[in-house]
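Try this one yourself first.
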């Protein structure tokens, strides 16, 4: 192993250096086109002279440091620098270096609008290449047209508000995310849940049965089927291709919820049989929150992406091709540019999904060596996110430990691991997504070390 480093020290020193550079940047922003004032020049030189010392301190790799304040008591977040982070909703949203650079360069509120020209719509901007990005995004998920939205939930909302009338029924999974419920409720619809089987998996048969049940009760078909590929409770894989066929057989529009798939594994909406594909940028596309994707086929694009027809009664004003469901323009600035900057990497990583699943199963096989540990998700895993149970292992230790369940968090933190729910020693979730094999081996060994320390049996 290479020489030891103090990750907390390095993280703080790097932030100090970045902030010094941002202070330089601010002076440049405020200077006149003809040059700096004497005061600005003196301050610029002062900051530059301090940078050498900061770089030397970074090179030392270790030392004493304090947490770095951004302003007041708003401190820097150093979780990703200090720890192996297994928090399930954060793994796929870690920014690439390119995305972090995009945030620095495009953080200003309307930064994407420098070159907005007729027809004055976000997805038509060519510099930066936002228009081309939208085209590539649709191709990426196997659909015809795509828009960026402020999170997957806004994709659900756009589809529901277009297709669902008051009193209409929408079929969702019994494991559906709460935002799917809210999208339907906001449109005035009614949710009906298709139950999962004894393996916590939703089948095509269950969805078909629910459709027949709704038709028998209401006299008409549901207006929409909205199903997660992998759910957020157990992250089990559901019969999405079978459900796509059922939707086509009944002639019901089908929304594919790819919050845990689009951006981390290959997704082809048309092969699935989906009419709409929704993804989460900040959950699975290495993008700043809030960000997401809504894609559809040509058949539905005119409805979902309908443009305003309203005319002002006094002024006679019209608003061109502004899209109603997105209030004209949607995702802009740092969230959009971070998604664009990460996109080449995101496209490439989806080709290596099998390797991510292999890492997940390697870790869980080691995890299961600890007597009493269980995997509550379907196993072997088909995803990097899993629900586990440590009631008969680490929770037994928690019952007599003075720190109760927090002993486990303490032990993981000592080993540079974060992201488990603090104090949880019964059922909880984790994700190994994006970890290197070295990190996977380290993570596995850490769990075994903790078990050994507290004299739990290891097979």
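Now uncover the answer:
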């Amino acid at each position: 192993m290479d020489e030891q480093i103090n990750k907390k020290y390095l993280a703080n020193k790097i932030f100090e250096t970045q902030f010094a550079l941002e202070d330089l940047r601010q002076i440049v922003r405020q200077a006149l086109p003809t040059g700096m004032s004497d005061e600005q020049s003196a301050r610029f030189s002062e900051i530059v002279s301090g940078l050498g010392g900061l770089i030397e301190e970074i090179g030392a790799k270790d030392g004493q440091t304090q947490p770095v304040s951004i302003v007041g008591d708003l401190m820097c977040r150093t979780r990703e620098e200090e720890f192996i982070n297994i928090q399930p909703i954060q793994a796929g949203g870690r920014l690439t270096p390119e995305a972090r650079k995009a945030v620095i360069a495009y953080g200003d509120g309307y930064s994407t609008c420098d070159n907005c020209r007729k027809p004055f719509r976000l997805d038509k901007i060519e510099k930066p290449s936002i228009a081309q990005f939208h085209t590539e995004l649709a191709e990426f998920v196997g659909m015809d047209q795509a828009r960026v939205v402020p999170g997957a939930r806004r994709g659900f909302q756009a589809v529901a508000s277009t297709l669902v009338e008051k009193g209409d029924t929408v079929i969702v999974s019994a494991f559906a995310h709460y935002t799917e419920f809210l999208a339907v409720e906001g449109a005035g619809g009614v949710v009906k849940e298709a139950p999962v089987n004894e393996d916590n998996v939703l089948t095509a048969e269950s969805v078909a049965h629910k459709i027949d049940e709704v038709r028998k009760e209401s006299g008409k078909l549901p207006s929409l089927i909205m199903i997660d590929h992998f759910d957020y409770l157990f992250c089990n894989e559901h019969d999405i291709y079978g459900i796509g066929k059922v939707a086509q057989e009944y002639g019901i529009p089908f929304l594919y919820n790819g919050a845990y798939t689009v951006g981390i594994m290959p997704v082809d909406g048309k092969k699935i049989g989906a009419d709409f594909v929704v993804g989460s940028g900040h959950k699975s596309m290495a993008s700043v929150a809030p960000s997401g994707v809504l894609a559809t086929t040509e058949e539905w694009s005119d409805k979902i992406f309908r443009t305003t027809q309203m005319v002002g009664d006094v002024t006679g004003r019209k608003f061109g091709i502004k899209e109603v469901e997105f209030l004209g323009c949607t995702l802009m600035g740092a969230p959009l540019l971070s998604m664009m900057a990460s996109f080449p990497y995101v496209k490439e990583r989806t080709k290596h999904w099998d390797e991510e699943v292999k890492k997940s199963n390697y870790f869980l096989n080691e995890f299961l060596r600890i007597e009493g540990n269980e995997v509550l998700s379907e196993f072997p895993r088909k995803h990097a996110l899993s629900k586990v149970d440590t009631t008969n292992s680490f929770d037994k230790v928690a019952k007599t430990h003075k720190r109760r369940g927090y002993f486990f968090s303490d032990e993981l933190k000592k080993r540079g691991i974060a992201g488990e729910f603090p104090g949880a020693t019964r059922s909880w979730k984790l994700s190994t997504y994006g970890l290197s094999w070295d990190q996977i081996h380290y993570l596995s060994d850490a769990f075994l070390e903790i078990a050994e320390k507290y004299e739990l049996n290891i097979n």
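Discussion: The chain is about 45% helix and 10% strand. The mean pLDDT is 96.
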